[in-house]
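Handover notes (outgoing to incoming on-call)

Open items:
1. Olfactory receptor: sequence verified, structure written out, both below. Nothing else pending on this one.
2. Nothing else urgent.
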Amino acid sequence: MEAENHTVLSHFLLLGLSEDPDLQPTLFGLFLSMYLVTVLGNLLIILAVSSDSHLHTPMYFFLSNLSFVEICFTSTTIPKMLVNIQAHSKDISYRECLSQVYFYIVFLGVDNFLLTVMAFDRFVAICHPLNYTVIMNPRLCVLLVLMCWLIMFWIALIQILLAKRLAFSTGTEIPHFFCELAQLLKVAGSDALINIIFTYVAGALLVVFPMTGILFSYFQIVSSLMRMSSIERKYKAFSTCVSHICVVSLFYGTGVGVYLSSSVTHSSQASSVASVMYTVVTPMLNPFIYSLRNKDVKGALRRLLSRTASCLCGITEF
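Olfactory receptor structure tokens:
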């Protein structure tokens, strides 16, 4: 089949995680449950932070932004897969596919940058506690979050503009459960060298700079903790970092796992299954990690649920 220009291309075919019809109901139920848990868990974090004045600090401001990004990130990929399973279809339109690629890049990158900003926040809080409120003022916090979004908006836009230059065959099969850029470039019917170069350069920069920031922040934090004489102060300072360390490890660990699985096996199916870890499992676990490890968040959630229950009881009685 000859490659057709994108102006007349109508749709792609998403092969999904499995073509076995007997597995489709199981996959639908599993991913619907995981999606609902992800949305509900992260939404509760946002509501708890916004409704509790004790959590109106930079640390929890960044956490609520991270939860919002996790909801958007998961909503970019899972709903379309659930609709296709339910409709017994593999179709995704050309515009839907490019939109999925664009928002996937944006939310993945913002997620990455927010983890770096949160590491910087912990560095300032532990290494410069007396100047913390001065340095991490509301204006800087908002500016840091806006910078994360602006950088990724432009990088994703360039990727999409480059992708629109490519030609594809009508009914091109994408061996994935969503339109991932790497898979899209593999099935392109025209030369994608410029796209590949930009993807590698942007990907390297988006990994190297955030990782350098996180490692530098924690190197300074560990150095500061080593100089503390009080064991109690060391434990209290380190306990504020544990949840973030877990989330960073999960985020980069699953990302490395996906890269290694695709490099070693060269199997699109294996890569798709591994991608589930950082597109679905990681966003689902993050609210549990922060709520279970953080007394302030647990207290805010209890107060939120208590107020909600009281309101519901009042409505019922009325």
